[in-house]
Amino acid sequence: xKLKFRTxxxxxxxxxxxxxxxxAFRPQPVPVDLAEVSRGPLMVTVRDEGxxxxxxxxxxxxxxxxxxxxxxxxxxxxxxxxxxVARIVPGAPSFLDARAEAEARAAVEAAQAALASAEAExxxxxxxxxxxxxxxxxxxxxxxxxxxxxxxxxxxxxxxxVAEANLRAAEGRVQSRTAELEAARSRLLQPGGEDGADxxxxxxxxxxxxxxxxxxxxxxxxxxxxxxMSLGDPNDLEIVVEMLSTDAVDVKRGAEVIIDSxxxxxxxxxxxxxxxxxxxxxxxxxxxVEEQRVNVIVDPVGPPDEWAMLEHGYRVEAAVVTWSADxxxxxxxxxxxxxxxxxxxxxxxxxxxxxxxxDVGRSNGRLAEVLAGLEAGETVVLYPGERVADGALxxxxx
Length: 398
Known about the structure:
- The protein is built from four helices and 21 strands.
- The chain is α+β, with helices and mostly antiparallel strands.
- The protein has four domains: 30-42 and 327-396, conserved putative lor/sdh protein from methanococcus maripaludis s2 fold, CATH 2.40.420; 46-54 and 234-326, Beta Barrel (Elongation Factor Tu (Ef-tu), domain 3); 58-87 and 197-232, CATH 2.40.50.100; 98-186.
- A hairpin with a 2-residue loop joins strand 16 and strand 17 (342-349).
- Helix 2 packs antiparallel against helix 3.
- It is rod-shaped.
């Protein structure tokens, strides 16, 4: 009896050890992230950095060479069409020293004296004309009564014509002396001084808008064509997106655009592609790589109040929609990997991962269109690692 009990004890112990070893070496399910294959809207976009700009920017430049007087306007100031935004003194006059000022004042006095003499000559000529007209009227009256000879009337008419010619000449000399006096006075004008407050060619604003930037603020000599400031209407914006040419070929005019990343917690804005410029250009990236890029012009869509926080030259990110559909069978891109020549996923069936080749269509980098190989509602493994293989046990990660 004692032998039988010992045998049963050791047999039970052996069975318990075998069970423990079996449990210890049994394959454990691999913890994985899971996702469900679903149907829904899918949007494919191409994203790149852009910047806002005023649709019509006007650069005001110097019409002539000269001394630009200090610009008083500041960026952001409102201007109206026709407002004087700057003044420039043609010829860049310099300040007069004592000797030059004395000579200029003497020239003014001489011109004043010459003008006074010319005005005296004009008054004398006016008196001669009045006398000749009176004399002619008297001779005409006497001739009608046949009290003077005919040649007396002719001489009276000739004297009147000569007097009128002398008056016209005197008036011409007055005009000439007046111009000489103005020229002499202009030599005394100092740039920016009291005498020269109204001196200079006014430069006017071509449009209603605001000052975007003042390029040349300080007073100084400038050449013709020098840029002084730029004007525009910040409420009339567009967006320029410098897009890779390989992405731009998929962008169509009228495509929807989503604008974001222009401010902290700022809501996305909507736009629409107006133009894909036909001319590309080469740009060096931050890594020193030559890239061929194309400007894509985007018009804002929506109420102006939504765009009020953006001004000229602000950085934004634009996602241009190149394809979209409402009912698409889709799977997360994180579940895809290459298996031979095809794309594949690991489907989860009763806790077991099954290698499943699939056909993939369009992708937006987060979700991919499934053309064949999966059905809505099936579960797939995300980010499958080396421990996940066909037939491996898996469980959802805690």
